[in-house]
Amino acid sequence: MASYRVVCSLALLLITIPASRAMLDSHYYDQTCPQAEAIILQTVRNASIYDPKVPARLLRMFFHDCFIRGCDASILLDTTTGNQAEKDGPPNVSVRSFYVIDDAKAKLEMACPQTVSCADVIAIAARDVVTMVIVRPSWDVLKGRKDGRVSKASDTINLPAPTFNVSQLIQSFAKRALGVKDLVALSGGHTLGFSHCSSFQNRIRNFSSMHDVDPNMNLQLAEVLRKKCRKPHTDRSAGTFLDSTSSIFDNEYFRQLTQGKGVFGSDQALFIDDNTKSTVEAFAKDQSLFFGEFAASMVKLGNVGVIEKGEVRLKCASVN
């Protein structure tokens, strides 16, 4: 899900974030803020109508938040004097739509002050961007997370890069108590994804001394991408959606991997490596299977590193 490039040796610096011991509950706000999920859903839906890229951005935001210090909304904190925050780290510079979370939080503070954490808002919003479509996976979001007070841009080196091979990806996910099936299922979130040219340009030009284009990439796709990402790279907004049905949450991403049409090297590697190929093939053939596994993996991801003693921020961009 990350859209940045990093030297592969940085994988050795990955930190371990254990699964949470905190007690989360899908009914956590039933008494204290029963309208919480409705407020978040309406905010997310309105923003998505205005900007079709919002769903992909919020889903990626959840992943990037949970993969650093756990699901504690540290990605939302602004940089302060003497500390550069996660959102300003290299892989997060392209994360957008923080305003959606801020809008939802402001409405929640009016409805039920000092009750709903920013971490829970991100988790619920990530579910909502998937479930807004007609055919989709769904799950009950476990709630009760607290917001962290630490956010460091330097920690973002721990996000998996689009250049990672499967061994590096497996290692990265294992540090978060996530298995191989979780890796493949959560990668399926790229069905809503968009990438700028900088994250895959190494695959379409000067790939190696023997190949100009990555030989694992479909040649027709490579030609399309070369036209979108012309040299010199003067348009920093240029890029491509990660599958051909980018506005629909489906299993097209996996079908494209079987045709060599993965945009990221880390995506296409899932179909090449024996550790993950059979799961990719299974998800490509059975959308319902993918939906079920994706929902289960999102619940597991949402439980990574949840803190028991934190705060409920009044504003998501700053600590209380």
UniProtKB/TrEMBL annotation:
Gene3D superfamilies linked to this entry: 1.10.520.10, Peroxidase, domain 2
Residue positions binding heme b: 190
Residues making up the signal peptide according to the UniProt record: 1-22
Any Gene Ontology biological process: hydrogen peroxide catabolic process
Binding site for Ca(2+) 1: 65, 70, 72, 74, 86
InterPro entries: Haem_peroxidase (IPR002016), Haem_peroxidase_sf (IPR010255), Peroxidase_pln (IPR000823), Peroxidases_heam-ligand_BS (IPR019793), Secretory_peroxidase (IPR033905)
Binding site for Ca(2+) 2: 191, 243, 250
EC number, as in UniProt: 1.11.1.7
Domain of life: Eukaryota
Residues that hold substrate according to the record: 160
GO terms for cellular component: extracellular region
Reaction(s) the record says it catalyses: 2 a phenolic donor + H2O2 = 2 a phenolic radical donor + 2 H2O
Cofactor binding remark: Binds 1 heme b (iron(II)-protoporphyrin IX) group per subunit. Binds 2 calcium ions per subunit.
Cofactors (names): heme b; Ca(2+)
Disulfides per UniProt: 33-112, 66-71, 118-316, 197-229
CDD domains: secretory_peroxidase
Transmembrane segments: none
Subcellular localization, as worded in the UniProt entry: Secreted
SUPFAM superfamilies linked to this entry: Heme-dependent peroxidases
Active site: 64
Function: Removal of H(2)O(2), oxidation of toxic reductants, biosynthesis and degradation of lignin, suberization, auxin catabolism, response to environmental stresses such as wounding, pathogen attack and oxidative stress. These functions might be dependent on each isozyme/isoform in each plant tissue.
PANTHER family given in the database record: PEROXIDASE 25-RELATED
Name of the molecule in the record: Peroxidase
Organism encoding this protein: Linum tenue
